[in-house]
Write a structure and sequence with these properties.
The complex is a heterodimer of chains A (about 1150) and B (about 325).
Chain A: H1 2-17, H2 40-45, H3 53-67, H4 71-84, H5 90-107, E1 112-116, H6 117-126, E2 145-148, E3 153-157, H7 159-162, E4 172-179, H8 194-211, E5 219-224, E6 232-237, E7 252-259, H9 284-290, H10 295-305, H11 307-320, H12 324-337, H13 351-362, H14 379-392, E8 400-402, E9 418-420, E10 425-426, H15 433-451, H16 458-463, H17 469-472, E11 475-480, H18 493-512, E12 516-522, E13 529-530, E14 543-550, E15 559-564, H19 568-578, E16 582-586, E17 592-597, H20 607-620, H21 622-627, E18 629-632, H22 654-669, E19 677-682, E20 701-707, H23 717-738, E21 743-748, E22 759-764, E23 770-776, H24 779-789, H25 795-828, H26 832-845, H27 854-866, H28 877-890, E24 898-900, E25 905-906, E26 916-917, H29 925-941, E27 952-954, H30 971-999, E28 1026-1030, H31 1036-1039, H32 1047-1053, H33 1058-1062, H34 1068-1080, E29 1084-1088, E30 1095-1100, H35 1102-1105, E31 1108-1109, E32 1118-1122, E33 1136-1140, H36 1142-1153, E34 1157-1162
Parallel strand pairs in A: 4-7, 8-9, 20-23, 24-27
Antiparallel strand pairs in A: 1-2, 3-4, 5-6, 5-13, 6-7, 9-10, 11-14, 11-18, 12-14, 15-17, 16-17, 19-20, 21-22, 22-23, 25-26, 28-30, 28-34, 29-30, 31-33, 32-33
Chain B: H1 2-7, E1 13-14, E2 17-23, E3 38-45, E4 58-64, H2 70-80, E5 86-91, H3 112-117, E6 155-161, H4 164-180, E7 184-185, H5 195-205, H6 209-239, H7 260-277, H8 285-317
Parallel strand pairs in B: 2-7
Antiparallel strand pairs in B: 1-2, 2-3, 3-4, 4-6, 5-6
Classes of the chains: A alpha+beta (about 1150), B alpha+beta (about 325).
Organism (chain B): Westerdykella ornata
InterPro entries (chain B): Nucleotide-bd_a/b_plait_sf, RBD_domain_sf, RRM_Rrp7, RRP7, RRP7_C
Protein name (chain B): RRM domain-containing protein
Amino acid sequence: MAAPVTKRRKLRHDSDNGSESEGEAGGVPSAPFDSGSHTPAFKEAQPKPSHTKSDLALQDGVYTSEVFKSNIFKLQVDELLDQVRFKYGKKTALVETAMRKIKTIIEQLPSREPLPIVDAETALRSEGVAVPFPNPRPPKDAKYKLQYERPSNINVTGSFPLKTATRTDGDFAIDLVVTMPKTLFQEKDYLNYRYFYKRAYYLACVAAGIQNSKAGYFKTSFDCLNGNQLQPVLVVHPSGDNGADDFSSSKCVVRILLAIPENTFPESKLRPGANCIRSQFASEEETSNAAGPTPFYNATLQSDVAVTPYLKLLHSAAAKCEAFKDACILGRIWLRQRGFGSRIRKGGFGNFEWAALMAVLLQPTPGAGTPPLSTGYSSYQLFKATLQFLVKHSLTRTPYGFNVRDVTFPKTNFAPVFFDGPRNLNLLFKMTPWSYSRLQNEAKATIDMLGDSTADHFESTFILKADLLTFHYDAVLRIPLSSLEVDPVSEDYDEALLEKLRSLYNTLTRALTDRVTTLDLLAPDHDTWEVALKRPPESQHKSVLVVLSTSPSNANRTVDLGPAAENKKEAASFRQFWGEKAELRRFKDGSILESVVWSVKDTSVPVMEQIIKFTLKKYISAQAAERASFTFDSYAAIIPSGRVQGQSGVFAFSARMNALANLEKDIRGLEGLPLQIRHIKAADPQLRYSAVDVDSMRTPASIVIQFEVSARWPDDLCAIQRTKVAFFLKLSDLLAEERPEYVTRVGLENQSSPSKNQAYLDIILPSGFSFRLRIQHEREATLLERQLKDKTLDNQSRESAASALAIYNRDYVHVPAHTQALQTLCTRYPALSPSIRLTKRWFASHLLSSHFSTELIELMVVRTFLQPYPWGVPSTATTGFLRTLLWMSRWDWRHVPLVVDFSSSVSAPSGELGTTEKANGSLGTQELQKIQTRFEAWRHIDPAMNRVVLFAATNLDNDGTTWSDRGNPEKVVAARMTALSRVATNVLRAHEDSLIAYMNGKGPGEDLNPFKPESLFVSDLGDYDIIIRLSSRFSTKSTKKTEPKFKNLAVQQGSLSEEDKRNVGYAPAALFAEDLRQIYGDAVLWLWNPENFDVIAGLWNPMVTARRSWKVKPGWNSMPQRSAKDKEGEEEDAGADIDINKGAICNEIKRLGGEMIASIELRN
Amino acid sequence: MASNKAAKRPPKTVSGFAILPLTLPSLPSLPSQCNDAKHYLYIKPHEPSHPDPDADRSLFISNVPFDANEANLRTLFAEQFGGLRVERVEFDGSVPAAPSWKRYKHAPVVSMAAGSSGRGRKRKRDEEVVAEGVVEDEESALPRVWKGELRPSGACAVVVFVDKASARGAWKEVRAAVKEGREIRWVGGEVVLGVQRYKQHHALTFPAKPLLQSSINAYLSQFTAAETARNRLRLKARSVPDEDGFITVTRGGRAGPARLEDAERKQKELEERRKKNGVKDDFYRFQTREKRKEREVELRKAFEKDRERVEEMRRRRGKVRVME
């Protein structure tokens, strides 16, 4: 059998290659060839009938692990390809018929005699078509004539005949290319737009022919090919009249492109270095040397020449390389999800460029080694290698040439260069520096995530829409087009606007320095126009968007340092750039530097905004500075200290952390403790930078103290708890001696279960910070484990031991470890702490947080930072929060666990995304497998999700249920989280859509932004059955003491009165809510906002409290009803039904709450 | 609901229980539905499943109000049912829950009532051996942090009267009240509610240090006694073979029980050593071949599993759709 031999060879090859990935270098082209079996072509071919089906599957399984990222990834890619592939069938047959008809019409058009420009235009106008001349318009006195002759060729091109089209595009455009006969042109027509005038006339003739044809009825309009005003094209729409020629149901339009035969003009004249636009006044020889090159003009002309050659190239690539078409489709999806397109204003890199780039990279270059792509690659390998190529080559700085001989690239050119020698074209000529840098960033992000072997990232690569401004960028600057002050009716409008944008890009990039990591310009799209009209000037109601990703540690810096004063040349340039803003300053380290200082007094205007306004005013126009609107981290104001300050996001917590450090020193310094202290560990959100309220003095922060191992402890759980109390008493005596200013008190807890922790020690510092100390004694865990296995204990006791063990592990092992991990992450990612706090505020304001352990919420946000794909690490609270929201709205928690690996780290967003590093103790494939298995086991034993709903595991805690066991949250609450986050993301998407519409001049007037960030934080109480409003005296907001004017002074002086100290930790509303929970058990689901306790809302549990037949212990306050069977009510004791007694329950609640309750509302 | 009630008057009895409506105190700031809300008690003579000497002088009440306690039920019977005297009331639950200790399977079961209302009553400690700690008395218990217990919604109570006659009288009175539709008011009381309850709790949570100290001293001495009792029990277990003839290994033996963990660790170490010194498993050709086959099988399995997973994904969320 041949197959096994091949297989073995394959394996050997791979082991030789070792870790070499399927990337850039490519290896031996034929090596992974048998892997091509995944393509449909294989199924058709069925080369070896001896293979059984499972053999094939196995082969797939073996090979895809190398050729595709993973089995799962491959299977998903296959499915995706099947889904998006364009379906050729009845509906497309309609458009094909239409195209054939159009072709016939064009072929039968009569030739037109050569006419001078003015006559030609008039003639066509009478036929209802305005010649779409490009700007500048042709001179009236031109000596050449315009003429129409039968096209030499008409052909379908693009992705439709190549079968790489995807269904996901809206109206699908099929390209019909009409090749103009060579005879129409003279040798010098490539100069001074002459070609383009003739081309425009030719197109107008075709348009007139189709419009006035009797053979078929179609609607027509003009558009510019890829938004390039030099290349108008004719778009043929279905008539929509249900007539014979109507192809509306195919959801297609036909675009008629024009092309010219090769060698119409000399190739060398159209290379990037040549000049083709001569001044009218100078003689030819002079200008060709003096005037600069016109690469864009040349490339545009050459692209008309290269239409057919590229069609050939793509076809041959598809024939040579089986996976080529699939890779094209993958590329299309990838580009689409990132908002790229062939149109100049969409970045100038679209489906055609992707396919052509791949096809060129597949070509062998004689003498240049192996090509970057190999024909044996799988579609995934082609896709990935193409991205890698883009990442690796900074084509803006270093042009890349394929088979290039004696071509010079002008230095002044701003576009990236990928010069395809045989077809004489820079494929990327439509790109701008900013769009190329965005393309590179996106490619880099994708390569990074595909390199992460622990997760498949299929979703973030292809499914997620990555170009959503709201989630992608930190800041958006909107500048009305009109304020750029470019005259829309002038002849060089397009160029002038582009020049303006270029200057905007350059000055902003320079001004913002390392505050931003990416900066991109989004320009509005061009519109099509009717054939009877002249091309209308661009509407000035549109806007340009500048989108920014910021660097969290630099964005709000207040001083920009420039060059040293003695460095004359650079200093001068710096001064010139900043104008009156530049100052010469002497700094602490003695250096004298040019610098710019930004105001921090007016905190309402962020530094970024000040810089941008300044730059706009100085370099663009005063109007632009005035009318531009800037949104940056707009949600940060919702929480205290929400904005990243200086270099860190945890600055606001430093006073508390210092207090803890001092306390630890004090405790460790105590002499006379019976045992030595091993650890003092923080175990509280306030000590891991994730408490919403930064400086609340009300709640003590938990810490855990662990003593050295000793045999003097009793060997009994209950007695251990009492011994702890003795320890606390001792500790508090000692502290009172050493630090009389500290207030200590021993508090009691868990009185219902004497073997759980019974006591804690509160220490209240004079500064007002308070800490709650508990003792961890490892022996407890051992004893509990022993009880768990002890068969002489009754079941109930063993169960309670199990739950006690889980609580022990959570409180003494996992919470401290989690706290430590969060501390590290919050210092590494400045935006993490504010993002967590903002997210917690969201949970709280929707009354959800009493059902989620705070650690669980933190993990969801940490996930956003550690698995940020397809984006970079968030750098503001806003992006961190919104992306978490987006993820929550898409989290299918029924089937997918949340897995966070604290040790994985994506390097901070310093311009480029780092690779995912793996440290010790990180999650390996095996652990991930284990977590997955455990998750599936939970779903298997508890399919109704009564106990575990959300499953969240980390590398520190593989259990997955530590934070969510025992219905915390319950299913209904988790579903509410999903529903609320969906509503929120929909609102955000709608807002973004209106922003985009506004950018394209289609939105409402100037007053956009009716959207307030706060609106996401407003809870709708209409959904609840019972609403208890607490009197304002008892909701925590008002019990908070009035803020002193100078907070730091107050903290230093110790402003807490005796009364305040006694009341630390006193929260009557929380106790009341807890009472409600215990009294009503699972009959009522209570929700509240623990941050302010203004409302406690309840939902009757319909499963439990629905009307039922009477029983002794239903578990809720009931009222008897005549049972449905007993209609007459005569028969005594016929049995009765019971309902939940809502009235009596309200009365009970009022009795319990007394004066705390302002009102109770009941929904019917 | 109100109209419903008017059309159909609520039943007066159910499964042998008399249904006694209680008028609730009228309180401000409640929704209108609550104005004439009644609380319903379901009462019948106590018929415990286990024989109980007090059964014939007890009434069983289901669905007691959340603020019911011994004192206010006593008042209820004394004042609104003709001066009937209640000896004690036993509830089946409380908020916060009464402390519960882990117990041995065959240890004497303490009745439903003892857990909740038994505090302060004398208990024969020697007879009751809990698996951990001691059953505390007033001295050794930690100070309580809540004054007064609440009842979970829909809880039950057993009201024990001073004698049989009172119990019978009470049952008669209750039935009469139900039949006549006499208004019985629920007064509650005897328990601190509202913000005072929480203020009190906050104060009680932090008891005076000397009080704590003395409670701990008492506890630890009682604990020593309890340990002795438990050791006696263990000793007995050590010397008595079970029905299969095995003697249970228990704590407190001469050399201490074998440390299972240690033994396991040693075993593992030994295996590790053996593995190292043994024949390497890629020594023979057949071994490599077998290994490769094994790996192939594994891969096949993994692939099948992945395929199932993707299949399952498709089933649950339908076709793959690119996000628009």
